[in-house]
Each structure stands twice: as C-alpha cells, then as structure tokens.
Design a protein that fits this description.
Length: about 190
C-alpha cells in the first residue's frame, strides 16, 4: 500500500502511521497515471469546489471557482476509480468526493468554522474551518455528525472516505486522528 497526495506534500499522518509505505505527490497530469490499486489518494482542503460539479450555481458566500484545480483533481479521482485505489478526502477533498458520488453541498453554514464535538463519538472533537457542508447521496454511510450535519462520510462503491475536519492539523496521537485511522482500517480492510 502507498499513499499519494494531490497537490500538497502533507500526508495527514499516513507517513507516521505507515513509515514503510511509499509516499508521493501528484502535481502534474503526467503523475496521474502513476496512481495504482495499491494507493490511498489524499485530496486536501482549500477553496470551495465549483457548484457546477453538483448541478448548482454559486451562492453569495461561495469562492470564485478554481476550475484548473477542480479539473485536475477530478482527473486524478477518475484514475483512482479506474484502478481501484482508495480515496481519502479532507474538507474540500471530502466535498469534491461527495459531489462526484452524487451528493451536493450546503454552500454556506454557520458554526462549523471551529473545533467542535462529533455527536456519535463522545468526547472526540474535530478541527474544522469549513463554511460548507456535505449533503451525501443515498450511497453514503454517514459515520459522524455535528448537530446533524455530516462530518465523516463513507462511499463504499468508490472506497471514498470523506472527513470535513483536518486531521493533518492535529498531533498523530489526537483522538480525532486515531478515530480516522481506525475507521479507514475497518472500512478498507487494511
């Protein structure tokens, strides 16, 4: 198993958890073909995805679209799906995976731009800086919420694990980071 990160050299603690795994960054189209079935592909946070990806027009709070990044990441995801790689989306990455799995987004939400507790996991807090939220499709397994809003979602048909929070901002021993690795191991069988 290997871990590949789209655009950013930040592996959300996969490098600490699995030090013998090969790690690399996908930052050019020529690298997309390097994605294999043995990979976990990480899609990181950033600006809002273009609402056209889930069939809507931008609302007042939505960032100006970064079409180049959206298109590049969609190509990387399509390659990952083609070869059967696992997908791990963080914040923006989770929202992009949700859109590509038939879901939508709430384009602006209050109260999720700070650390908050997960409803289903007593005492575990997520780091967060999102102003948008996932509206998962029917193929989703909603694993964790905050005030009823999805925070961790899994799409089994595409091996897509989606987390709104930022485990890469926390220590590798933080309960939120531990929870994400536990869930990934269980869902992916690794």
């Amino acid at each position: 198993m290997n871990v590949k990160s789209v655009l950013y050299n930040n592996f959300a603690h996969w490098d600490e958890r699995y030090p013998d795994w090969k790690r690399s960054v996908i930052h050019r189209d020529s690298h997309i073909d390097d994605i294999t079935a043995d990979d976990v592909l990480i899609l990181h946070g950033g600006t809002d995805i273009n609402p056209w990806l889930y069939g809507e027009l931008p609302e007042g709070h939505t960032d100006f679209p970064d079409r180049e990044r959206d298109e590049f990441e969609v190509r990387a995801i399509k390659q990952a799906l083609k070869v059967g790689a696992k997908l791990f989306g963080i914040c923006r990455g989770a929202q992009l995976l949700t859109a590509l799995n038939g879901g939508k987004l709430i384009q602006h939400i209050e109260g999720h731009h700070s650390t908050h507790k997960l409803d289903e996991f007593a005492g575990i807090a997520t780091s967060s800086c999102h102003h948008q939220a996932m509206i998962p499709s029917e193929t989703a397994q909603v694993i964790a919420t905050h005030d009823g809003i999805p925070e961790i979602v899994y799409y089994a048909p595409t091996n897509s694990y989606c987390v709104q929070g930022h485990p890469e901002w926390m220590s590798s021993s933080h309960p939120f980071v531990e929870l994400n690795f536990k869930l990934c191991r269980e869902l992916w069988g690794i």
